[in-house]
Amino acid sequence: MRKMTLLTLAALAVAVSSAPLWGQAQQESARGKESPGRESLSKLREATRTSPLFWDVQTIIDQYVKVMSSHYQLTENQEQYTRELMNRRVKQFLKEYEKDVRTLMSEYYDYQLRREMPSPEAARDFAARATPLITAIRQEILDGNMQWRRILNDEQLKKHDRDLEMIHATFDNYEGTMKRWAEGDVHPTDVGIRERNPARNVIKVEDAMGYYVRNFINQYNLDQGQRETAYSILREAREEAGRYRESHKAEFAELEARQKELAASNPDKEEDLKRIKEEGRKLTERRAELEKPLTEELFARFKERLDTIPTADQRAAYEARQTALKERLAKLRQSARTATLPAGVGTRPAGTQPADEVAATPTGE
User: Fold this and answer.
1) Which among 22, 28, 60, 212 could disulfide-bond with 33, CB atoms 3.0 to 4.6 Å apart, if both were Cys?
2) Is residue 51 in some structural domain?
3) Same domain, yes or no, for 171 and 297?
4) The domain containing residue 155 runs over which residues?
5) pLDDT per residue over 166-205, tens digit each?
6) Number of folded domains in the chain?
């Protein structure tokens, strides 16, 4: 799921087709092709090089519009309309869901950075949080695209049709991956680990607990005192995990030593690769079995203790946000079913757009 890193960009660029343009710009850059959007692509990459927790939304929007302008060869009026549309839709979406998006994607960013897979329990939790957001983002992007394409000419529409197909394919991949994660099924390639790597590093439960607390605090908007309680529970759970690991120190050391040996191997023959991958799989299973008291029993107690922290009002506020997300999604789906393009949208000659659509400042839905 290497392209999952695009999800945050998609959330920040709700109004338009994020994944296709990003891919197109990357291809042009890889080929060394000169284009007006290459400098903006470079700045966009720089803006998204760190954890999503620290991404600057306005910088991403500004540079992304320039990449779009190059990709679609937008006129000045079209580019202005695009900028206004994106700013309005993106900021409205993030006004409600920015914390959720940043928290989720910073967690995924860490998985990729560390080349570690979430445990089955952590994957199920991640999928439960990510799936409704991914679905909402997909519908928001498609809704924004149907509005945005009204200003495109015939040549641009043809390109946009191809990009829409890529959007669907990209989000089909996201949603398919989250269905697997919901069942605790994580593949190494989901977090950027090469398939040929025999040893599958699974994130330690201590780190998974840290992600869980960070999301829990955001989810219920805990106050300072509640946060201190949550981190105290985290600290105690990690200390208990440390005692367990110490009591099984020799077993963990043996597994880690063999996993490092396998990771350092570089077999040439296919049969050797299969044998080593199979041994790596068995080592991963042995480690998972050894860590069950942590990943299942300790993690369950840890979550139960956290669940005592939020007040009834905080729980009600969280449920209200979830309900609002579902209602927003239902509205977007209905809009997608009933949306129609204005007459003549597919027959305008290249380089021409209706003045009332291009020059107008975008308004509400």
Assistant:
1) 28
2) yes
3) no
4) 2-192+320-339
5) 888 888 988 999 999 999 898 888 888 765 554 557 788 9
6) 2
User: What per-residue string of b and e applies to 113-152 under the rule 16 or more CB within 10 Å gives b?
Assistant: eeebbbbbbbbbbbbebbbbbbbbbbbbbbbbbebbbebb
Are 15 and 144 a contacting pair, CB within 8 Å?
A: yes
CB atoms under 10 Å from CB of 46, counted, come to 11
Nearest CA-CA partner of 145 in 57, 7, 18? 18
pLDDT tens for each residue of 337-361: 554 443 333 334 444 444 344 444 4
- 272 and 166 in one domain? no
What pLDDT is recorded for position 234? 97
How does pLDDT run across 92-108, given as a tens digit for each residue? 888 878 888 888 888 88
What digits encode the pLDDT tens for the residues 104-140?
888 888 888 888 888 888 899 899 988 988 888 888 8
Task: List, in order, residues 6 or more apart from 158 with CB less than 8 Å away.
Answer: none
How far is 294 from 246, CA to CA, in rounded Å? 13
**Whole-angstrom distance, CA of residue 82 vs CA of residue 88:** 10
The answer to whether residue 244 is domain-embedded is yes
Considering the entire predicted model, what is its pTM? Answer: 0.71
For 23-34, what is the mean pLDDT? Answer: 49
Residue 202, φ and ψ in degrees, nearest 5: -105, 135
| Whether 200 contacts 280, CB under 8 Å | yes
Q: In this structure, are 218 and 84 located in the same domain?
A: no
